[in-house]
Amino acid sequence: MGEFNEKVVLLTGASSGIGEVIAYTFAKNGASLSLCGRNPDNLNRVADKCKVEGASKVITICADLVKLENMNRMVEETVTKLGQIDVLVNNAGFGILGTIETANIEDFDKIFAVNAKAPLYLTQLCIPHLKKTKGCIVNVSSLVTTVCLTYFLQYAMAKCATDHLTKSSALELAKYGIRVNAVNPAVTKTDFFERMAGEDMAKQIFKDHNLLHPLGGSCLESSEIADIVLFLASSGARSITGTCLPGDRGRNV
């Protein structure tokens, strides 16, 4: 897709997992990338590979999305160094397992800060720049907004907020030509998921026959989600906005 050769993509959670593969996917399509994450060593590693894969330009910004001032800095640095913002990908996520009986309110606050408040605030910050480029936003949500899984209460609540942000902002920003969509992955084999679920539970979930998908397999690969993000950001999805698109191999049919 040569259309990304002149585009700037601001990507959060870019240092590992789905975000890392999203970065490589945009790089292969010639985009300039602003990679944001908390681990500077991982960010630099991803940035180096993005350059090899074909990215036009790459910058890295080490930032914790819990702090609003960090998001201000991310947007300012991106525009200063790369000139514009065409695509915002709200991919960064945080999760801790808990049920209605065990959920911790302090954990709840952090989960919502990363998964709900940060995408909202970054969207607000990027609107003036996306107006200029008639750009788009892709939020990385989760299938847990429509399929209930035990222990995922707080994470699912936060991702439901992400879905609603997607639909509401799509409706409100359409007048500027700004599209907003989300991808809702089923269980994807990443370090993030293994950290959240714990090694033993992650292995159990990966093998659980209830998570087998009609198209096959027990869990998704990050590349499958990255391809959907690329599509939603492309002109091929120019008539799509306000959509939360499952990436689940038919899990939610």
TrEMBL record:
Transmembrane segments: none annotated. InterPro entries: NAD(P)-bd_dom_sf, SDR_fam. It holds the Pfam family adh_short. It comes from the Eukaryota. Belongs to the short-chain dehydrogenases/reductases (SDR) family. This is Uncharacterized protein. It comes from Ciona intestinalis.
